Amino acid sequence: MKTKRPRQITVLFSSSIALLLATWVAVGQQTRRIDDAALKNTGKTGEEWLAYGLTPGETRYSPLKQIDRNNVSRLGLAWSYEVGPGGGPQEATPLVWNGTIYGITNWSVVFAVDARTGKERWRWDPEVNQSAVRSKICCGVVNRGLAIYQGKIIAPVIDGRLEALDVETGKVIWEARVAYHQDNYTITMAPRIAKGKVIIGVAGGEFPTRGYFAAYDANTGRFAWRFYAVPGDPSKPFENAAMKKAAATWDGDWWKFGGGGSIWDGMAYDPDADLIYVGTGNGGPWPEQLRKSKGKDNLYVCSILAVKPDTGELKWYYQNTPGDSWDYDSVQGFVLTDITINGRHRKVIMQANKNGFYYVLDRITGAFISAQPFAQVNWAKGIDPETGRPIVNPDAHYDHNNESVTIFPSNGGAHNWSPMSYNPVTGLVYIPTSPNSSRTFLVEPNFTFQEGRMNTGVPRGGRGASANPQVPPSIGPAAFEGQRGGMLVAWDPVTQKERWRTPGGAGAGGGTMSTAGNLVLQVINDGRLLAYTADKGEKLLEIQTGLRGGMGPPITYMLDGKQYIALMGGTGQAAGGRGGDSTPAVRPKLLAFVLDGRERLPQ
Fold first, then answer.
1. Where are the domains of the chain?
2. What's this model's pTM, rounded to 2 decimal places?
3. What is the spatial distance between Cα 572 and Cα 85, in angstroms, rounded to a whole number?
4. Is 270 annotated in the active site?
């Protein structure tokens, strides 16, 4: 027996060391924090999805390639998770960290689930006063995403709150008040992190609001600074030099209408340039004439702003649609990357704008590089290559001519909130597009401003339009014969030309992601998940998820040697049919797919 004791002791010692090492690994995984360095390098391995656009440049490009063009047809459901009862579209991009998926659904409910199984880990409900807030929401009960930083999930709440939740438990760490719904503001965008600050904007441009975005300390929630998108009452001191400059581009008593310029999407951060880029919304009311600013630019509506994250100081701006009268917000997502144009290396910021033009700007200086229409456009004849200003078609000014005019694109835009993606291997951008959308505009007769109400100044549904409205000639890619609805467009930002297109999708709903497996994955609002070759646009996969309507963009991650593709979708609202049929729609779900997944899809 004595001869066996040393071996027993050795086994016990080895087992203790193994247990201790396993404990250290587990603790290390639990306490690993996402800091500025981690966010700067996010997306390099593709194993996790730590930020809204995956990479610092918001390219939504993953280096993962286990799923590729040769095997993507084997994709099947691994698991599903019911995110809640619904009530609106699922527009959020989930985050993946430490084996957990974090998501946000209607009425700003946040959840955490096991990324391997879909089992819920925690759930947090901000208990929004829905009846009070609903009337202040312009365009749907939506939230577009979260941020993660230093052990906290940063969650925007639609009623104007900003919450920091413990990443492990979901318990509230701090709360900040960004805005009040009583003042006609809501929050629908995903926050961004820049140098330890949370940057967030407010929606509400169709209401009498003055748009702004603000910064809060990510560890304490303490307010840091605020930047307004439009100037306020000129009888009071201007907040900064930028507001003084902007005031000279307005006329009349615009501040009584709020001015507009809401920030409801479109933001990116370049840590090397130390600039946060923000897109701003339309002016209010829509017609330039009703703002009493005929011929004025109305800074900084429909613009791209670059500010310092430490102070909120404006470094440069570019206005996509000066004096906008067509609701052409500039809040569509950005892509930051480096490309070579005419033999010159350029650090660029790119945007497929609502107004139908694809813009390439120098992201350090804001200098205009190029812009071309990626959809049918008739509000402008082109963009001046020297000044970067649009050459507005005089006939497009329905408010000047006091007549009805059909404009391309519609106010819904050639591209809306639906995320595009950029593949550095192909050099192409993949844009969910409404290529030939239009709307007939006219000024609302006898317009009267109403405090606390939506004031577009344009009748809904074209009411009052003449039977034969003016239709100025269009520029841009022509529609294919028989083409109806949305398209996925692969765009070359260097040559400013379309490389391929395929039917499906639209400017709003779903979105795209690209991977090193030569894939573009797209989700569209009829419930389909599609995969194409990134270089040529050959369709490789089509899955009907069963989640009709309200689809969010896809993400990908790697766990235990398996690559997953995940997405959210479904509205959950009753689908009333003929004969009083009130069969409920499938409740919104988070779905995760893997190669050879065998679970059943929602019916």
1. 33-115+133-535+543-595
2. 0.93
3. 6
4. no
